[in-house]
Amino acid sequence: MTTTAATARYARWDGVGNPFRLVDAPLPARPGPGEVLVRVDLATVCGSDLHTTRGHRSSPVPGVLGHEQVGRVVAVGAPVGRHSAAGEPGVGDPAGGPRHVDGTPVRVGDRIVWSVAASCGRCPRCRRGLPQKCTDLRKYGHEPLDEARPLTGGFASHCLLAPGTPTVVVPDAVPDLVAAPASCATATVAAVLDAAGPLGPGDRVLVVGAGMLGVTAVAMAARAGAEVVVADPHTGRRERALQFGAAAAVGSPAAGAFDVALELSGAPDGVRTCLDSLDVGATAVLAGSVSPGPAVELDPERLVRGLHTVVGVHNYAPRHLAAAVEFLAAEHDRFPFAGLTGGPWALDELDAAFAAAGAPGAAPRQAVRP
């Protein structure tokens, strides 16, 4: 166990229409059993952060937002009982304390990303291999503010990781701007590709939406050898997708032409596009619809006769975070991921960072350096 004594700072969010407010707080002298204290080196403004501040999705108020970040471990708590979901590596060890997804011990100085969520490892969902839907799930950047223990989001100088939080070491060669989105965008796309099934040469993949998730999916599918077509109404986004390995970028794809269709825009029209674009035996993975919207009709006869599979993905499992880091470490020089992030902004410029993130034609992410 290691100790620390200093002051932290976090950005308090007080609801729609209110500016962020910086608050100082004491760092814990000792992390609790199974906890890990991390200094946040860089965080990025995710699309769901924007949705929260605009009132498009519910979130506790007040709170500390931010769930895409990279940082260094500064203190590690005492050992705690193992937290492990069925088929997933443990993140705690009774003998040696917290462990990374690959099973190695968490050590002071490790440069890491951590999952958007911490799970209990014991509930029926965790035992079924669905830790991302734990019945006692705690999500970074989505928790109600506890002023006694406020370090639960990425828009802060430090974050205190709860027991059951998957962590992955990030190689120093991967820039902060590239590494931070692994905690949400990249890991989510890894889960989407996992749900789609193995891809390889000859597979035809449609990606609907060319935002952060979309271009990441393009790069992952292209890396696997698939022929990838992107559908997005915005010319600039279509052009960007070509830089990430898309064979073509279109406004309206051909109906019934694809083996796999990935919906990452969240737009109802995008869901319809995915379903209409499935060839016989094809799979549609829907991951963009994370806020309330109108229902989309589904033709059950077409689904049955087409032998279609429709899968929903939300959050991700620990193995997907590891896959995200492996992908970025291997491919960040091949694909221009660093160019997807604007800034960086200081923590006291968080309002400006959010304004920049929501501007027309903005980079998919804005970076914040606490």
Automatic annotation (TrEMBL):
What is one Pfam family matched by this protein? ADH_zinc_N
Which terms in the GO cellular component ontology are assigned?
A: cytoplasm
Domain Alcohol dehydrogenase-like C-terminal, residue spans: 213-329
Write the signal peptide boundaries. Answer: none
Stored SUPFAM superfamilies: GroES-like, NAD(P)-binding Rossmann-fold domains
Residues covered by region (Disordered)? 82-104
Residues covered by the Alcohol dehydrogenase-like N-terminal domain: 32-162
Q: Which cofactor does it need?
A: Zn(2+)
* Enzyme Commission code: 1.1.1.1
The protein's name: alcohol dehydrogenase
